[in-house]
Specification:
The protein is 28% helix and 20% strand. The protein has a single domain, classed as 3-Layer(aba) Sandwich (Protocatechuate 4,5-dioxygenase, Chain B), CATH 3.40.830.10. The chain is globular and about 45 Å long. The chain has eight helices and eight strands; from the N terminus they run βαββαβαβαβααααββ. It is α/β, with parallel strands linked by helices. It comes from Phenylobacterium hankyongense. Its cofactor is Zn(2+).
Length: 270
Amino acid sequence: MTLPTYFIPHGAGPCFFMPWTRGPADTWDKTAAWLKGLVATLPERPKAILIVSGHWEEPAFTVGASPAPPLIFDYFGFPPETYRLTFDAPGSPELAHRVRDLLAAAGLPAAEDPDRGYDHGVFVPLKLVTPDADIPVVQLSLKAGLDPAEHLAAGRALAPLRDEGVLIVGSGMSWHNMRGFSPAFTAKSEAFDSWLSEALADPTRREEAVRHWSQGPYAREAHPREEHLAPLFVAAGAAEGEPGRHAFRDVAMDVVISGYEFGAPVTANA
């Protein structure tokens, strides 16, 4: 069974696990509900999750190889209880070695970090996706420079994992401008989201669109720096030539945010 790949929105800091006061209290409810239901939509329960977060960059693609990764509370200014969250999913040194070897075999610079923990782009959404923390999780870094072609290539190299029961997930945000969460940006976010969704759906033009994503409407207002979009490049690359679909959409903090699925059959009501 070949698993699809995903790009998921991971919200704002620990937003799912605190009273939200920076807008309506239900701002993140739809995103949380989608993440909670994600595993149930898969053709089989994953044996492991390989996740790429927008919060880790290295000179080479680097995979976390700790058997018991700690949590990295890399957010600031949130309530004290959000710094006591737990997520005890085990790592998998074996999967980490496999990831490194696949990347190296494709000619990509690859390394391992035996101590790296899970940053909030990992543990915050995965606490919803796997609340029992019973699926091993391995995190892969972005590569410095954030070159779309390199991250597409990394996804292609990792595609065999989909047949080995590994769910490949990119964790970021489809709109990520810290000064661009306001009604003044709603229409711009809708335009960028529509362009992105159309481009990702068509596997015959997806790679070209990803490589030149910054030419999309309001692209640099959506992502002044693309670290929160680059995880999508890996997820898309791992399903090269296969269908993509807009799997989730909501308006949060006055802008459109979306999630995407690649490599699963597209049904008429998708």
